[in-house]
Model the fold of this input.
Amino acid sequence: MQVLDLSGKSIVVVGGTTGLGFSAARCFVQSGARVVVVGRDPLHAKAARKSLGRGARALAGDAIDPAMSTQAINLAVKEFGRLDGLYHVAGGSGRAWGDGPLHEMTDEGWRKTIEWNLDSVMCSNRAALRRFLAQGTGGSILNMGSVLAGSPSPRYFSTHAYAAAKAAIVGLSKSVAACYASHGIRCNVLEPALMDTPMAKRATSDKKILRVIKARQPLDGGRVGQPADLDGAAAYFMSDASKFTTGQVLAVDGGWCLA
Done:
């Protein structure tokens, strides 16, 4: 279903082969855009390219590699003539590396979580800014945050490196928005709550957490969010409808921040 008119837009989605990123990429294509999606798993990249159709290209690579975002943006320019938008979704939980409450966190847990969730954003945003400035056309950057950056839930979601990285994304995005507004470059942040993605499997399979979610995300029956719940907001920030909007943080959270 077409959400907003993205006809002719050329968009790169970092972390776009599964979950929230893939759902958004599909929405962008259905709304008239051409996309390049990037994901770590070559099989997922291949499947995404096939599913998204002729208006899409896909690359397999790691978002923490500075060359990866540049490669994806260069591909968008080569195939579609220009870059109009970057949506950075890549990131995730660092529990497996040792993220957790600060007194329990390991050094590796901190480093890996920050690298995956914050360093990768710096790499993609820098590459997009360089392209927009070279084109002289302006453009839109949208980064993925989390409600945990400003609305913690310590009993079940006490991953402090992750929260720190997501909070830093807000600071980075606002700084970018202020610095490059005169060039017509916008930078905004989406902050979802608990969404039904592979990253959230631990939480979405825990009955105690689901009871908490019913109270913390009361909209629409108190449910876990679905990837498509973010699509409209992502399309808005990629479209000309948001041409006078920058430096904003939009929580798409079912009411989490109000609980």
